[in-house]
Amino acid sequence: MIADSKVFSSRRVNSFAFLSPREFAVIGDEMSHAQHQKLNDLLKESGYQSQDDHISKAPKLVKRRICALKSLQLKSIDIEAAFYKRVHDLEREFEKQFDALFLERKKIVNGEREPSDEEAKQPLIHGLAEEDQKALYDSSGSDEGEVGIPEFWLHCLKSNEATCDLIQEHDEPILKHLTDITAHCTTEPVGFTLEFHFSSNPYFKNTVLKKQYVLNTLPDPEDPFGYEGPECTKIMGDTIQWEDGKDVTKKVVKKKQKKGANAGKFLTKTVKADSFFNFFDNLEKEEENKDNAEGDGEDEEEAYELRAADYEIATTIRDSLIPRAVLFYTGEAAIEDDMFPMGEDDGDDASDSEDGEEEEEE
Amino acid sequence: MIADSKVFSSRRVNSFAFLSPREFAVIGDEMSHAQHQKLNDLLKESGYQSQDDHISKAPKLVKRRICALKSLQLKSIDIEAAFYKRVHDLEREFEKQFDALFLERKKIVNGEREPSDEEAKQPLIHGLAEEDQKALYDSSGSDEGEVGIPEFWLHCLKSNEATCDLIQEHDEPILKHLTDITAHCTTEPVGFTLEFHFSSNPYFKNTVLKKQYVLNTLPDPEDPFGYEGPECTKIMGDTIQWEDGKDVTKKVVKKKQKKGANAGKFLTKTVKADSFFNFFDNLEKEEENKDNAEGDGEDEEEAYELRAADYEIATTIRDSLIPRAVLFYTGEAAIEDDMFPMGEDDGDDASDSEDGEEEEEE
Predict the structure, then answer these.
(1) What are the TM regions of this chain, as residue ranges (chains A, B) (predicted)?
(2) CB-based contact A76 B323, cutoff 8 Å
(3) A chain contacts of residue B119, beta-carbon cutoff 8 Å
(4) What is the domain partition of chain A in residue ranges?
(5) Beta bridge partners of B150
(6) What is the mean pLDDT of residues A188-206?
(7) Residues B318-337: pLDDT tens digits?
(8) How far is A226 from chain B (nearest CA, A)?
(9) Do A2 and B165 touch (CB under 8 A)?
């Protein structure tokens, strides 16, 4: 009996991160070609021409039957694609019911209405002993006319394992203006959008920052047997219209030239800074640039991993953060984080050091 | 931007293992209580009574609004449960279409009919260069009246990453008699069954070995906020009616007594042996025995992991092995295994060594 801890924990991580049954792989086209190459190599390595292989040594009549099973497999994959289409329809149908509740949540969070006594009957923290529940109320701050639930979404994002590491100190004052996060299925093209709604603020002009995910729901004609359900084929970000000097996604660094004519002099250079708002970067644009530059395999792999990580965050926001926001706000949903730590991101995206240059933040 | 490889690979493992969007967590009741305790501890540790916590220091009017969001959350979770119910209905609806194709596959695999020329048009291996394809045919064995596709399911099971490690050498002659594997949704109780169909064989009397999985689709009234979709609550195995001396799940070992009155003498003892057929063990029965014996926390955790691993295997068989059997048979689906190795099971379930005893296989 297998009792592999990796299987087990990936199951748990998964069951946490993907609450709704939207199972979308994020395998780009480039991967399916790479897989093909790999398969071909494997087939040769594992000796498809040798006599001890069950495929090559199979009599021709048996081979003919295997070919027939491949035909049946194609039909089966077409039915799967039809199934996923129906799941998408089901999600759209239920979206209306969820949205009605999320709208009420938005009103309460932003002080557009006060809850009824009936609504406010639920205990603050589920399953907490009565004395602990009371103690929570004993330490209540004085009501100084707070509107709604201040900093609600900032607390949610900071307590969700997929988003907490994205948030830098300089992002927090901006995220206090976040009034709602919504997700919607789209049909043309098939996919979904995430929308981050902001109140009027001194940081940027946008009232909504949008991220769009396009899915291919059909099998790839070049690789029909590789079908594993809808694949994310395109991730579109948004352009943040930053107010002057407020763009936290960029920072100016001084670089001391070590070589060449300018050796010893300091030059200033604007580089990317860590920020939650890098989430709105347009990954597709980067893809195109990379294609023009004829990126090598390593670049491709990096771009692929970046897209996969982005998609992971997006589906967690859609399937976990949005439908369970208050549980992240109170911290009740955050214990998963502790039970299965996801590891820290040690990489420094903003690092842009080159040979012969020293970097120093201004 | 998070680019955590664990997130990424768990996503891929998941997208491979769970092709259909059946997202079922396998959290037993005992876990939800443990989680509660943990939450309570965490709440205290993280200082819910202290002034710097956003929940405890929130003014009472803000707390009242949070309580109202908890009411909305409960309604939202009820809609989720209704959604999962509809997904289950959708799976039942599509099952008929898949079953019609799987029945044709069964006929061809077991030689009940020959495919038409139209059916046999698909190439043996997708995407293989023409000369390699031809080479596969050059090495064909002579047709000695083979019926269907010999050892089809044995090859499938050996090339699937969830099942390959379960198969021991002594299982192989038995698994050559496997004629089909089928999966079916059940409604009363809600869940699914796996059925392994065998031709008449000298090893056991059963023609079908069945495994049943019961799911709870509704939120737990004690822990409604912990709802993450249907949970597997019961796993039922089957009783294999082994022919005399054919039970590969047991082995007789000699034990040399080191202490006591029988010191120096050999005693024989029947112990559990590694075997694919342990998959049909009744995990529930073990659970009950354990309850009677008032098992400690470690036993509980072990039982939980055993059930989680079993469920992982079952869903892989249902969502991957059955719908893509021919791709495992040809090895085309097996490359995932290579890309994300799942690790070996180093544990030796059959080991039963005790103090003062030496073990030796007969």
Answers:
(1) none
(2) yes
(3) 67-68, 71-72
(4) 58-116+152-245+279-343
(5) none
(6) 97
(7) 999 999 999 999 999 964 43
(8) 8
(9) yes
